[in-house]
């Protein structure tokens, strides 16, 4: 059964707000302990404990064993997530939350254009169209306006 797009959009918008809040929280933790890498480690550790608890509460703990048979490339998401957390908590004092978020979204949109075009990891390929390029350029304009 297809999921309603409106719910997904609201969910992602709330997640986006959480990312905007996460960056200054993690940055403040990094300043408090004098280590941006340490703060990223703590952030992931707390998130890990929460996710394990929720996974077990939902009865999906046994499904974690399936990761042993997964292609190794599919296990790299955590590396990318760790880099994201560290990069944002390192950069938020330099850029501010608005510019950091705008640049983050620009990077996501640029990569998404390529990912959609190629159709990697079983996703349906989608053409790079003028409206999609204009959307990326508008976000790039937002980056400029947020900073200068």
From TrEMBL:
Signal peptide: none
InterPro entries: YdcZ
Transmembrane segments: 36-58, 70-89, 95-116, 128-146
Domain of life per record: Bacteria
GO CC field: plasma membrane
Pfam families membership: DMT_YdcZ
Keywords: Membrane, Transmembrane, Transmembrane helix
Protein name (record): Inner membrane protein YdcZ
Species, as recorded: Roseovarius halotolerans
């Amino acid at each position: 059964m297809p999921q309603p797009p409106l719910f997904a959009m609201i969910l992602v918008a709330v997640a986006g707000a959480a990312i905007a809040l996460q960056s200054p929280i993690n940055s403040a933790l990094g300043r408090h302990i004098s280590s941006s890498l340490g703060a990223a480690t703590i952030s992931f550790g707390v998130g890990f404990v929460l996710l394990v608890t929720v996974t077990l509460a939902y009865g999906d703990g046994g499904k974690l064993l399936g990761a042993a048979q997964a292609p190794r490339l599919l296990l790299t998401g955590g590396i990318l997530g760790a880099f994201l957390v560290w990069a944002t908590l390192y950069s938020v004092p330099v850029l501010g939350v608005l510019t950091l978020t705008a640049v983050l979204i620009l990077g996501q949109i640029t990569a998404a254009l390529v990912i959609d075009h190629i159709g990697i990891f079983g996703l349906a390929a989608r053409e790079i169209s003028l409206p999609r390029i204009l959307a990326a350029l508008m976000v790039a304009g937002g980056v400029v306006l947020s900073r200068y």
